[in-house]
Amino acid sequence: MSARPSPRDRLIDTAADLFYERGLPNVGINEVTEHAGVARMTLYNNFDSKEALALAAFERQAEARQALFANRLKGARTAVAAVKVMFDVSEQLATKPGFRGCAFTNVAVQNPYPQGPMHALVRAHKTWIRAAFRDIAARAGHRKPDTTAQQLVALLDGASVEAFIQGSVEPIRASKQAAVILLSAPQ
């Protein structure tokens, strides 16, 4: 039998779920504490503000996503296999109930402060994804791996948005095919 998560962890996990489901601006502190089963004072003993809670929630999500991608990439023996992994992980995430696109893209769009800490967190996560694609492009022998990485990120992000809009993983599968063609193109 596993121990119940700490109140802090319950707040972070609950906030992450609610922010993803309803959008950061649409979720209040009272809703988070009620769903987490903790007193409001517990929240303020752990976090200075809703933004601090949101940052903790999205930091945890970024770490989990990056670990998921990194663990799956370990088994990829070729650049093409690696690029497929990136899209396969996205497809896996898109099949979960309540999928609403990329949590990081969503919060970036919802947050009105592009110079704030939330955007910095999103940029750091997207930079990690771009670096993974850059490594894949370099492994494939692309002369301009940074450009290829930008193209692959655009395919992945667009696929995630379209998967949500269409309610289907087909955009991710189609984008994976385009990514393989792009990666396999002579350089």
From TrEMBL:
PROSITE patterns: HTH_TETR_2. Residues 28-47 bind DNA. Pfam families: TetR_N (PF00440). InterPro entries: Homeodomain-like_sf (IPR009057), HTH_TetR (IPR001647), Tet_transcr_reg_TetR-rel_C_sf (IPR036271). One of its GO terms (molecular function) is DNA binding. The keyword Translocase does not apply. The keyword 4Fe-4S does not apply. Keywords: DNA-binding, Transcription, Transcription regulation. Residues 5-65 form the HTH tetR-type domain. PANTHER family: HTH-TYPE TRANSCRIPTIONAL REGULATOR LMRA, TRANSCRIPTIONAL REGULATORY PROTEIN. This is AcrR family transcriptional regulator. It comes from Afipia massiliensis.
